Amino acid sequence: MTLTSFGPANRIARSAETHPLTWRLRDDGEPVWFDEYQAKNGYAAARKAFADLSQDDIVQTVKDAGLKGRGGAGFPTGVKWGLMPKDESMNIRYLLCNADEMEPNTWKDRMLMEQLPHLLIEGMLISARALKTYRGYIFLRGEYTTAAKHLRRAVEEAKAAGLLGKNILGSGFDFELFVHTGAGRYICGEETALINSLEGRRANPRSKPPFPAAVGVWGKPTCVNNVETLCNVPAIIGDGVEWYKSLAREGSEDHGTKLMGFSGKVKNPGLWELPFGVTARELFEDYAGGMRDGFKLKCWQPGGAGTGFLLPEHLDAQMYAGGIAKVGTRMGTGLAMAVDDSINMVSLLRNMEQFFARESCGFCTPCRDGLPWSVKLLMALEKGQGQQGDIETLLGLVGFLGPGKTFCAHAPGAVEPLGSAIKYFRPEFEAGIAPTSAAVPPLARPIVVGA
């Protein structure tokens, strides 16, 4: 799989007018360093933001553009920025880039950081100006060693050009930017767990409120945004709200473009920048090329391991948050996975739930004990040793670990694919029940955590 696979060459012509995130990419996949980035209109939006726009103007522009978080939650970015305090006496505040991309089957932020590091830096510079933050951190998953190397070089290039550090562009505004590599925990994708990890603490989510905008890194106001979210900011500031909103397909309630992809046994697995509102069928057939010869599409996930499974008949759904919600799940990160007809759903779910159980921070009981319980039951079903009532117990866990039942969104995301798999492929789970097993009341089967 190549991170620069943008579909058939005769169908894709990337330009600044249609592909604000990816038009600067090199065909050879090498990074776009400072001189080339600047030659391709790089940092022009930052200069405009510093010269022509007030800090409030930048926030309002992003809000008017309807930019939403691209990390999976989809919270309106301008609204989030608006939560930062207006009190000028609170002069110590932080901007954090959430680059802890550990969602299975998701690699979009990696491509941006490895090949367009200056796009992220420009997005953070404009955002810092809007939020009056004097220091920023790119919190990067430790396994992304190439991205860390490229980002650090790009930071030094920006410093040498006077675009980071003291008195940027003669404005009197100071902004320092650091690349911080984490220890590799999925839970750091949750913004307050990320903040704890950055401070050197255990990566547990914090109680909210207070929200990071009020009490964040080292108790100071903090804004946390995803890599792809921040990379959208230069185009919005540079080319305007109406142009940005015009990029999406008719019917989409989300604006702009999105990095979308397909993996699995498809003919052309890859990553593409596409307008919100494109159908999943177009993504699957026209860009990913459909299934490889000899394989049939059984089901698919629209945006990472924490989203529910959908069937082939759902491929006509539009790829935006509301479009995917209409068919019963979330868009998530927008990088889909095709499951072929050779895959047993019980084994697939056992693998997924093992990952989520191991990545739980262990803070709250439903997640700490419920996810290993689901793994135990799935392992028994996988071996044909399940008992009557196990499927009902799994469905009970899906309810007990659902939204609003746990301290953060880790467990709800973990059980969403489990619930949808049982909904659509229950006979495969029933096949794992031993013929002579005795009936066990739901949620009554004994469990030894870690066994």
TrEMBL record:
Residues 346-391 form the NADH-ubiquinone oxidoreductase 51kDa subunit iron-sulphur binding domain. It is an enzyme of class 7 (translocase). SUPFAM superfamilies: Nqo1 FMN-binding domain-like, Nqo1 middle domain-like, Nqo1C-terminal domain-like. SMART domains: NADH_4Fe-4S (SM00928). One of its GO terms (molecular function) is quinone binding. Its cofactor is [4Fe-4S] cluster; FMN. Pfam families: Complex1_51K, NADH_4Fe-4S. PROSITE patterns: COMPLEX1_51K_1, COMPLEX1_51K_2. Its EC number is 7.1.1.-. It catalyses: a quinone + NADH + 5 H(+)(in) = a quinol + NAD(+) + 4 H(+)(out). Keywords: 4Fe-4S, Flavoprotein, FMN, Iron, Iron-sulfur, Metal-binding, NAD, Quinone, Translocase. Composed of 13 different subunits. Subunits NuoCD, E, F, and G constitute the peripheral sector of the complex. PANTHER family: NADH-QUINONE OXIDOREDUCTASE SUBUNIT F. NCBIfam families: nuoF_fam (TIGR01959), PRK11278.1 (NF008436), PRK13596.1 (NF010120). NDH-1 shuttles electrons from NADH, via FMN and iron-sulfur (Fe-S) centers, to quinones in the respiratory chain. Belongs to the complex I 51 kDa subunit family. This is NADH-quinone oxidoreductase subunit F. It comes from Pseudomonas saponiphila.
